[in-house]
Amino acid sequence: MDKPRSFRDTSPDIHTMTRYFAFLRAINVGGHTVKMDLLKSLFEGCGFSNVDTFIASGNVIFDSPFANTQKIALVIESCLQETLGYPVATFVRSSEDLSAIISQQLFSDSEEANIYIAFLATTPEGQVRDKLYTNNSSDNHFFILDQEVYWLCRTRFSDSIFTGAQLEKTLGMQATIRSRTTLQKLVTKYVHP
To answer: Class of the 18-97 domain?
Structure first.
């Protein structure tokens, strides 16, 4: 199988508004509960516009004139830390990024419902990548492309012997995971309505 083409566009453009998706890691765990209307107002307070939330699991849609997703993520993390009092790792992707992510054909069409995407802040390389791939099995298969891990879980995700915590430990970095089904719904509603 040929390696899929990278889809990151690093050219800056601060003159037009771009639709972004923020995927928040563990915002409602450890006794913390953040209502989605509060989360929406926090993003508006950060200076973003057309803010919406999708499912109560830390998916925020917004517009921004800035093109650097890592800087946008840092702004959000700083704002949430200041307001909520605890860190919330944030992963930002543009609408183009998200469309490209769900269009990747890394596994068979019949297995799309079993695909999960882990969002990362940087691209795992070398030994880290190889370390994750040693966990490929008949039940779990991983593929790294850019700043995402595509995870085919052939068992129920909640029953998998490999967990999100193990993924983070293996990669040595934080991640947040969404099902491909959820990401497809986001694209259908906010990118190609």
So the answer is: alpha beta
